[in-house]
Amino acid sequence: MLIRVLPEDHGYFLRNIKLFHHKNLLFWDLKGSAAVFEYFCAMLVLDGKIAAAAVKESLKTKTAALGANGKRKPHLAAILVGNNGASETYVASKVKNCEETGFASTLVRLDENISETDLLQTITRLNEDPSVDGILVQLPLPKQISEQKVIETIDPTKDVDGFHPVNVGKLVQGLSTFIPATPYGIMLMLEHFAIPTKGKHAVVIGRSNIVGRPMSILLSSNLKQGNCTVTICHSHTPNLKELCLQGDIIVAALGRPGFVTADMVKEGAVIIDVGITRVEDSTAKKGFRIKGDVAYDEVAQKAAAITPVPGGVGLMTIAGLLKNTMQAYEQRVNG
């Protein structure tokens, strides 16, 4: 693949060339005063393991310093209703990452038949517990429970998932707040790999309150990894392929495995795959495989950078959650 890099972006490639698949710079040329560099190189894998490890190491250092100064650890409380297999896996991973980072964590397990009233009372008790900094309720919830009521019951100052209307409103206004964990993780990933975003056209596929909408706000905001012109697409967008082909950055968050194909992506685009769907596969050890919203193998041939699934955005979601938990702790301790 030939990638043409403008002067304002070439530093990104020089800093990150070691992360490219083949790890070798095959060709570069300087053309007159325009200083346009050309590279023949493989695409960059935006490895969530690498970026998440950097975030966790920073938080681990902070937490160790707190302990050395006689202060308590940040404390995350997670509520798991029922025994959904995927939810069990996600919550276990969050608890494990808290432990690895040095945070305290509490897992509250509740029966899937719990009443909405009892669940809300459990949340209220955690709201009132001064030792708890962050609260998350693992979604989805059983049908007898309103997810919106649950979200609105969590104290906004402990809402480390960033779903409470108060925090969403602050995000829209550009105020300091808890950013929803997945969009936050994506922004952290873009920052870690120094992906240029200023002046780029970002296409976000999906308009959920969890990913699509906040992602569009962040990418268009006046932030280090923002200042994009953003197009947000959804199931009623008639010219989706045409819009995607214009995208310098594509964020796929619609929950349809393999939806984004190579003919929808222009050469040199940056692809962020938020999808994580279990697809039955009798040849797999567990009987299923995790698939993203992007047809990875074919799109990777055209992309300048792409996130893998698994091993990409999912790991960064947890990194975003941990960052929010530290922020909640610092706000509570420092006032």
What does this structure look like?
With 335 residues, this protein is an alpha/beta fold. The chain has 3 domains: 1-42; 69-173, Leucine Dehydrogenase, chain A, domain 1 (Rossmann fold); 180-317, Rossmann fold. Helix content is 37%, strand content 17%. A 6-stranded parallel β-sheet has the order 3-13-10-9-7-8. Helix 3 links the parallel strand 4 (75-81) and strand 5. Helix 2 packs across helix 7 and helix 7 packs across helix 11. Mean pLDDT is 89; it is low at 1-7 and 17-40.
Sum this structure up briefly:
The protein is of the alpha/beta class and 335 residues long.
Task: State the main characteristics.
3 domains; 37% helix; disordered N terminus; three-stranded parallel sheet; Rossmann fold
List the topology elements:
Elements: E1 2-5, H1 10-16, E2 37-40, E3 44-45, H2 48-68, E4 75-81, H3 85-101, E5 104-110, H4 116-128, E6 134-137, H5 147-153, H6 165-172, H7 181-192, E7 201-205, H8 212-220, E8 229-233, H9 240-244, E9 249-252, E10 270-273, E11 277-280, E12 288-291, H10 296-299, E13 305-306, H11 313-334
Parallel strand pairs: 3-13, 4-5, 4-6, 7-8, 7-9, 9-10, 10-13
Antiparallel strand pairs: 1-2, 11-12
